[in-house]
Structure formats: structure tokens, C-alpha cells
Model the fold of this input.
Amino acid sequence: MGTNNTQETLPDIRQTIVLNAPIQKVWDAVATSDGIAAWFMPNDFQPELGYEFHLEAGPFGKSPCKVTELDPPNRLTFAWGKDWSLTFELIALEGKTEFTLIHAGWDAAKVTEFGQPHGEIRKHMSEGWTGLVGRLGKYVEA
Done:
């Protein structure tokens, strides 16, 4: 027990779903401003490495983000807020797409910009992502 490590990493939130849509259609839904707005949040995203943008997080205001990895149509990662990163991974499967969302950067010792402990908000976010990934599915399969 006597470790002096202040960082208590919590596991990433990972959600994988197979979408009945071709990879390019899913990529357009997760890597364009209009696509992200349709299932997640309004934003001023541009698919450019290093691009800084904001997610419109409703009552929480504008959330600063920055594109850190861009590998169309397979992977997009962006930093979100001060601690988090969000990765969208896509794998083409014969006309369908395996989509994995990875929300990383959880630390039990930290709080969000709004003073909420990571451990507490992680549970809500994990449940929230289930709904959002479902919305993405409805959007691309429509």
C-alpha cells in the first residue's frame, strides 16, 4: 500500500459496435463536423492533424479539443478538455464497419473542469456513450 503514486488510472471506456454501413459512411459520420453534430455534439471540427476545435457541450459550454491522430478512414483521436482523449477506430468488414470508441485519460485523483471527480463522472459517461454509440448506429444505418 505504501506507493507514493498520485496517479490512479481508471480503465478507458471502450465500446465496440458493428454497424451495417460501409466504412466511408461511418468515417464521414465520425470525422466531419456535420457528422459529429448529427449524433454527438455541435462543433467546429476540421479533419486536420493539430486542428483545435470546440465541442458545444450544452450547459457545460464550449469544450476545447485538438486533433492528435488522423488516419482516414480507420482512426481519429482528439484531445478533449484538459485530461481526456477520444479515439474512433474503424475496421471495414465486407460492407459493414466495426466501430470502437475509446474514451481515455481517466484518473481517480483528478476532477473535471467542472469539479466532478473522474471516478464519478466516468460511470455517467460510460452509460452516456452507450446511448451515443446507439445514435451513431441509427444515423449511419438510416
